Amino acid sequence: MNQPPSSPASPRADVREVTPAEARFRQGQGAVLLDVREDDERAAVAEGSVGIPRGLLPTRAAGLVPDLTTPVLLICGTGVRSRLAAATMLDMGYLDVASIAGGFARWSAEGLPLAAGLLDADAANRYARQVILPQVGVSGQARLAASRVAIVGAGGLGAPAMLYLAGAGVGHLTLIDDDRVERSNLHRQVVHTDDRVGMAKVESARQLLQALNPTIDVVAREEKLQASNVETLLAGYDVVIDGADNFAARYLIAAATLHLEIPMVYGAVERFSGQVSVFDPRRDDSPCYRCIYPRPPRPGDVPDCNQAGVLGVIPGTIGLLQATETLKLLLGVGDNLVGRLLTYDALTMRFREVAIPRDAACPGCGAHVSSVDYLAIEGFSCQA
Fold first, then answer.
1. Does pLDDT of 10 surpass 70?
2. For residue 38, how far is the Cα from the chain centroid?
3. Which long-range contacts (CB under 8 A, 24 or more apart) does 9-13 make?
4. Which pTM was predicted?
5. Would you say residue 326 has pLDDT above 70?
6. What's the pLDDT band for 383 if we cut at 50, 70, 90?
7. Whether 173 contacts 153, CB under 8 Å
8. Between vectors from CA 309 to CA 305 and to CA 312, what angle results, nearest 5°?
9. What pLDDT score was predicted for residue 165?
10. Predicted confidence band at 1 (pLDDT cuts at 50, 70, 90)?
11. Pick from 112, 125, 206, 163: nearest CA to 316
């Protein structure tokens, strides 16, 4: 006698269940916890879980859990849908899958750690390779989404930095530059295209970043950073990236970030070399930019890119290092380049690190400095 086909709502008989306490322990051993409720059901979630509606598992599970041998835990409201989801993942070839008995209701009742619902299905898939890192996780990704970064300069350094910060999900990027796209920019300023020659750089960059990641907020400020507006432009950000191409802007950024107590991620390039560092006024041991360069060089001592030239990939390398330092600052992970200047020589393919002590007599952060005079800083920088 032929048996009727099994109901699609009936899970496989070999679906394994674990208690919430067992699931929490397995999380600590590296298991991935997927919450298969719908997005609007996840006002609160089990700590460390990634949200993905059950119906999207066949198309998005591989993005969240690329290795079929990774232990996977499924949770829903009461434990019914998670069993169906576990069956789906077993059918997809995952080898170690379990449903959490009693679901989120039991997890919560047993007093296990909770978090606010942080990632919707789009974010869970978009940042899957990043969220799976223990140093990032769901909470770290939410932290990035809530972060604000100002990027001064939409050129060679700012372009790669902003691309990767947008891709990483930094929730708000403000681009500050008064320049327009020229064809000579295109070999190194990778956010611009030939059909945008003549367009404001910040608008050209904004269009590309929004196309890359429409879930973030990108603001284009077509303004020249100067003494009269530097604090207004930079106040309220978590990090400021220095992609400036002139000393006046760089010294103003250094002074304003110091006064506003915002980390400044510095980068500079010339020909086949570059350098990067982090100045974090929130730390007592951090030097500032003027601890290294108290005053701008004399006219002609340091030619700009228009005079000296630059290999197109050099600002790409330095800009990526600036993006890396920025993400570390926002996530609170790793050891930043505070007190260290990292230099790069592409011709020899060598990095070198130079210790930067804080200068007690520094004209920027020395104990004798009681106020900041942006007009004076702009004046001596422009005269250099």
1. no
2. 27
3. 9/84, 11/83, 11/84, 11/86, 11/87, 12/86, 12/87, 12/90, 12/91
4. 0.75
5. yes
6. low
7. no
8. 95
9. 98
10. very low
11. 163
Are 320 and 341 in contact by the 8 Å Cβ rule? The answer is no
Q: Residues with Cβ < 8 Å from 136, sequence gap 6 or more?
A: 130, 331, 333
- Helix residue ranges, H only, the chain: 20-28, 57-64, 80-91, 103-109, 121-126, 128-131, 137-145, 158-168, 201-212, 230-234, 247-260, 289-292, 305-308, 313-331, 374-383
Residues 6+ apart with CB under 8 A from 264: 239, 240, 242, 253, 254, 257, 258, 278, 279, 280, 289
Distance CA 154, CA 65 (A): 35
**Are 89 and 194 found together in one domain?**
no
The domain that contains 306 carries what CATH number?
A: 3.40.50.720
The contacts of residue 297 (CB under 8 Å, 6+ apart) are 247, 384
Radius of gyration of the chain (CA): 25
Both tokens of residue 297? 């060089």
The DSSP secondary structure of 121-159, one letter per residue, reads HHHHHHTHHHHTSTTTHHHHHHHHHT-EEEEE-SSTTHH
- The candidate with the shortest Cα–Cα distance to 173, out of 217, 210, 235, is 217
The values of phi and psi at residue 196, to 5°, are: -105, 10
Average pLDDT over residues 354-382: 91
Range of the domain at 22: 16-127
Nearest of 197, 93, 97, 201 to residue 156 by alpha carbon: 201
Q: Work out whether the CA dihedral 281, 285, 286, 291 comes out positive or negative.
A: positive
Q: What angle do CA 282, 288, 291 make, to 5 degrees?
A: 145
Separation between Cα atoms, residue 141 and residue 153, nearest integer Å: 26
Residue type present at position 352: R
- Residue 71 sits in a domain of what CATH number? 3.40.250.10
Token pair recorded at residue 186: 């295109």
- Which residues are part of the catalytic machinery? 305
Q: Of 229, 238, 235, 233, whose CA–CA distance to 172 is shortest?
A: 238
Number of domains in the chain: 2
Please tell me the predicted confidence (pLDDT) of residue 381.
79
Angle between helix 137-145 and helix 313-331 axes, rounded to 10 deg: 110
Q: Among residues 92, 127, 162, which one ends one of the domains? A: 127
